[in-house]
Design goal:
The structure holds 2 protein chains of 2 kinds. Helices cover 76% and strands 0% of the residues of chain A. Chain A is built from 8 helices and no strands. In chain A, helix 1 packs across helix 7 and helix 2 packs parallel to helix 4. Chain B is mainly alpha-helical. Chain B has 11 helices and no strands. In chain B, helix 2 runs antiparallel to helix 3, helix 2 runs parallel beside helix 4 and helix 5 runs parallel beside helix 8. The chains are: A mainly alpha, B mainly alpha. At the A-B interface, helix 2, helix 3, helix 5, helix 6 and helix 7 of A face helix 2, helix 3, helix 5, helix 6 and helix 8 of B.
Chain lengths: 205, 264
C-alpha cells in the first residue's frame, strides 16, 4: 500500500506544474486522498490542509522556483501514516523542508528539458516531424521517476530515522516543534488572509 | 474550426508546461497544441516554417494558452490564404501578436487564477471540511476536496474549452474583446469574498477570545515582518525551543489553537 501510495503521489505531483494544473496535486486534495488510501482520512486531510495554507502564498508564475507543495504534503502524510512513525509535529516541518528543497532538483530537470526542446527544434530544421509527444513523454517520465524516488526515500528512510531522532532529541527541541505545530493553523490562516487582505482587493497584479 | 479541432487543442493544452525549459519556456507545449492545425493548412517548406514559428519562445498562464493557440491558428490560416506578397508581413505580424497576447493574458490569468481563485478555492475547501466534520471525516474530506476542485476548475475548464474557439474567431481583435470583460471587478469580488470567508474561518477555528487574539497577533507579526509562512513557522519553532531551553514558560494559547484544529 505504501509503494502504491508513493507511485500515485508521484503521478499526482506531475499535475502540480506539468500536466493539467487542475489542483489535483494541491495538498488539501492530495492529503485527503492519501489519508483515504492509508485508512486515516482525517489525519491525511489535516496534514494536507496545513501544508496547503502554509504554501499558499508561493505562486507558480514563470520561472520562479517555489516550494513544491505536492512533495511537501506527500512527504508529511507518508511520514505520519500509517501511524507509528514520527508525530505530526516532526512530520510537518520535515515535509515542508523537503518541499522547499525540491526546486533544486526541478531546476536541473528543467535544464534537461531544454535539451529535449532543442532536439525537437533541430528535427524541424532538418525537415522532419518534431516528435513533440516524445519530448513530453520523456519529460514527464523523468519528472515522475524523480518525485517517486524522493517520496520513496521519505517513506522508507526518513520515516524511521525521524522517529528515532524524535525519541533521542532534547526536550527543548521537541517542545519547540510541538509549539510550532500548535501555531500552524493560526499561521496558515494568516497566510490565507494575506492572500486576500494584505495584497488588497483593489490590486490585480 | 470544428468541435473536434477545439477539443484537440483543449486536450493538448493540458500538456502545455510538460516540457517547460529555461530557454524557450512553454514552446514545446504550445507547438504540441497547434501542430495538428498547422499540418492541416500547410505542407512542405511552409509547414516547416510554421512549426519553427510555433517553437519560438512562448510563455503565458496555462488557462489562457488555448485562447492564444486559437488566435495563432486563425492568424496562420489568414496568412496562408493571403496573396504571396502579403504573406511574409502577415507571418511576421502573427509572431508579434502571439507574444503580445501571451504577455497580456498571463497578467490577467495569474491575477485571476493564482492570486484570487486558488486561495479562494482553498478557503472554500477548508470551510466545507468544517461544515461537514460532524458527518464523519470521510464525508468532510470528500466535501473539502470536491468543493476546492469545483471552485477552481469549473471556471478554469470553461475558459480553456472556449479559448480555442474564441481566439480563432476574434484573432487580433481578442485584446479588444478582453478589455470589455470585467476582469478587474471579478478579481476584486473574488478577493473580497475570500477576505470575508477567511474572517469567518478564523472566528470558527479560534476557541474563544484568547485564541482569536493570538490569530490577530500572528497576522500582525506576519504583516510586520514580511516573512513567508514557512519562514515564520521555522522562526516560531526556534523561538519556542529557545524559550524551553532557557526555562521560560511557552505561551499557553498555542494549545487552544491546536485543540480547535483537532476538533473543527
Amino acid at each position: 500500500m505504501i509503494a502504491a501510495s508513493v507511485l500515485w503521489t508521484a503521478l499526482l505531483e506531475l499535475e502540480a506544474s506539468s500536466v493539467g494544473i487542475l489542483l489535483l496535486s494541491r495538498p488539501m486534495v492530495l492529503g485527503a486522498g492519501l489519508g483515504w488510501a492509508l485508512r486515516q482520512p482525517a489525519e491525511g486531510w489535516r496534514m494536507g490542509a496545513l501544508v496547503e495554507l502554509l504554501t499558499l502564498e508561493h505562486l507558480p508564475m514563470g520561472s520562479r522556483a517555489v516550494p513544491n507543495a505536492a512533495i511537501a504534503a506527500g512527504t508529511a502524510v507518508l511520514l505520519v501514516l500509517p501511524l507509528g512513525g514520527p508525530p505530526p509535529a516532526a512530520a510537518l516541518p520535515a515535509g515542508l523542508a523537503l518541499g522547499a528543497a525540491y526546486p533544486f532538483l526541478e531546476t536541473r530537470l528543467k535544464a534537461w528539458k531544454g535539451r529535449l526542446a532543442a532536439r525537437a527544434q533541430e528535427r524541424v530544421e532538418r525537415g522532419d516531424a518534431p516528435s513533440l509527444w516524445s519530448a513530453v513523454a520523456a519529460s514527464l517520465a523523468l519528472e515522475w521517476a524523480m518525485a517517486a524516488a524522493v517520496l520513496f526515500l521519505a517513506a522508507a528512510v526518513l520515516k524511521p530515522a525521524l522517529a528515532a531522532s524524535w525519541e533521542a532529541a532534547p526536550e527543548c527541541v521537541r517542545r519547540g516543534l510541538t509549539v510550532a505545530y500548535g501555531f500552524a493553523p493560526g499561521l496558515g490562516l494568516a497566510c490565507l488572509a494575506q492572500a486576500f487582505i494584505l495584497r488588497g482587493w483593489g490590486r490585480t497584479e | 474550426m470544428t468541435i473536434a479541432q477545439i477539443a484537440g487543442i483543449f486536450w493538448r493544452s493540458m500538456f502545455l508546461q510538460s516540457a517547460w525549459n529555461f530557454k524557450k519556456l512553454q514552446n514545446v507545449g504550445f507547438a504540441l497544441c497547434v501542430d495538428p492545425w498547422l499540418r492541416r493548412i500547410h505542407s512542405g517548406e511552409d509547414l516547416k516554417a510554421a512549426r519553427l514559428r510555433a517553437l519560438e519562445a512562448f510563455s503565458t498562464q496555462a488557462h489562457m494558452a488555448p485562447l492564444v493557440a486559437g488566435m495563432f491558428c486563425g492568424l496562420e490560416e489568414d496568412a496562408a490564404r493571403a496573396p504571396a506578397p502579403e504573406r511574409m508581413a502577415k507571418r511576421e505580424r502573427l509572431v508579434a501578436l502571439r507574444s503580445a497576447a501571451a504577455a497580456a493574458l498571463a497578467g490577467v490569468g495569474d491575477a485571476l487564477f493564482w492570486s484570487a481563485l486558488r486561495p479562494l478555492s482553498a478557503g472554500l475547501g477548508l470551510a466545507a471540511a468544517m461544515l461537514f466534520w460532524d458527518r464523519g471525516p470521510e464525508t468532510a474530506c470528500l466535501a473539502s476536496a470536491g468543493i476546492m476542485l469545483a471552485a477552481f476548475n469549473i471556471p478554469g475548464l470553461a475558459l480553456r474549452a472556449a479559448g480555442p474557439w474564441l481566439g480563432y474567431a476574434e484573432k487580433e481583435e481578442i485584446a479588444l474583446r478582453l478589455k470589455e470583460w470585467p476582469w478587474q471587478k471579478t478579481i476584486r469580488g473574488l478577493r473580497l469574498t475570500g477576505a470575508v470567508l477567511t474572517l469567518a474561518l478564523a472566528w470558527s477555528v479560534s476557541a474563544g477570545w484568547v485564541s482569536a487574539a493570538a490569530l490577530a497577533a500572528i497576522f500582525g507579526v506576519k504583516k510586520a515582518t514580511g516573512f513567508s509562512g514557512l519562514r515564520l513557522y521555522a522562526a516560531c519553532a526556534v523561538a519556542a525551543a529557545a524559550m524551553a531551553w532557557s526555562g521560560a514558560r511557552a505561551p499557553a494559547w498555542d494549545g487552544a489553537l491546536a485543540a480547535a484544529w483537532e476538533r473543527p
